[in-house]
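Duplicate of #3305? Posting structure anyway:
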């Protein structure tokens, strides 16, 4: 069940439309269209002599969200109508957040129209928002850190020596392989972060299930930046469709190091279920801290 809709306008101002408490905002939601999966266009080639057709490709069309809002006295109908102009200004970008019993997701779009019914006993407005991206995304990112600490301290405890360090509070672990579980409706890219605490050369990242891989050539990196991976470096790799990049953060300066990837690099995409990733370096694997971030993609609310 849908609980509320939050709209954030292009200035960063937000309003929460609560379905159970419309008086808090002055708007009551009569109906929302366009929250289900968007329509797909199927491209096929008809045969001249055979029945049926041959499938070529498919793509999901943009989403169109239509809000039908009623106005309440807060403090007046006219004031609430002006609020709709403020939070849903035509041709401007607006972020839509939907909260349900089990999901908290967002998308963005541009206001195509805001059509109020003014000369009526019951004043309402129909707002059309065109969303270029047809999917909803989880509001928060899931983060999997390969490195960490294994707790080892237990009660009851005893200290057998006053001079030697015998008590172990935790054990540092440095895994080079982990499983990323993904429960979305469609494939999604990831953001990979590598933090170096020492010298590292020639890093390779693998998806062990799909045999996909990408490599960072530190010889090219040294030619571009003056040195290979050194302590304090942070490398960020984004495989998100429409926002793919490889950046090095060194001494507070970001550098585009896309050319340091191997030419046949695979841009990883998470599929539903288990996705097993591993990494290794020619030298200095223990000097790398590795993590993967991703959002969950939903076809509809």
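Output from current build:
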């Amino acid at each position: 069940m849908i609980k509320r809709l939050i709209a954030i306008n292009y200035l960063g101002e937000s309003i929460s439309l609560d379905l159970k408490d419309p008086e808090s905002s002055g708007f009551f939601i009569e109906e929302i269209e366009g929250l289900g999966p968007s329509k797909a266009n199927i491209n096929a080639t008809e045969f001249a002599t055979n029945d049926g057709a041959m499938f070529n490709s498919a793509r999901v069309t943009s989403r169109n969200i239509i809000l039908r809002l009623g106005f309440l006295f807060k403090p007046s109908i006219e004031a609430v109508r002006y609020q709709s102009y403020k939070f849903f200004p035509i041709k401007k970008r607006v972020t839509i957040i939907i909260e349900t019993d089990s999901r908290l997701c967002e998308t963005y779009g541009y206001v195509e129209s805001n059509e109020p019914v003014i000369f009526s006993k019951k004043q309402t407005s129909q707002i059309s928002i065109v969303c270029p991206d047809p999917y909803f995304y989880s509001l928060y990112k899931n983060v999997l850190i390969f490195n960490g600490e294994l707790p080892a301290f237990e009660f009851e405890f005893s200290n057998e020596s006053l001079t030697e360090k015998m008590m172990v509070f935790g054990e540092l672990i440095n895994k080079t392989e982990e499983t990323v579980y993904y429960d979305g409706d469609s494939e999604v890219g990831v953001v990979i972060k590598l933090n170096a605490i020492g010298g590292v050369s020639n890093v390779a990242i693998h998806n062990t299930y799909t045999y996909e891989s990408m490599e960072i050539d530190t010889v090219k990196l040294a030619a571009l930046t003056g040195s290979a991976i050194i302590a304090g470096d942070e490398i960020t790799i984004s495989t998100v469709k429409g926002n793919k990049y490889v950046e090095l953060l060194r001494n507070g300066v970001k550098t585009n190091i896309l050319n340091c990837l191997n030419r046949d690099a695979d841009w990883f995409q998470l599929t539903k279920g288990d996705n097993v990733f591993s990494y290794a370096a020619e030298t200095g694997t223990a000097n790398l801290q590795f993590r993967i971030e991703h959002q969950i993609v939903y076809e509809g609310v």
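Confirmed duplicate; merging threads. Residues 77-87 form the longest helix (11 residues). The radius of gyration is 26 Å.
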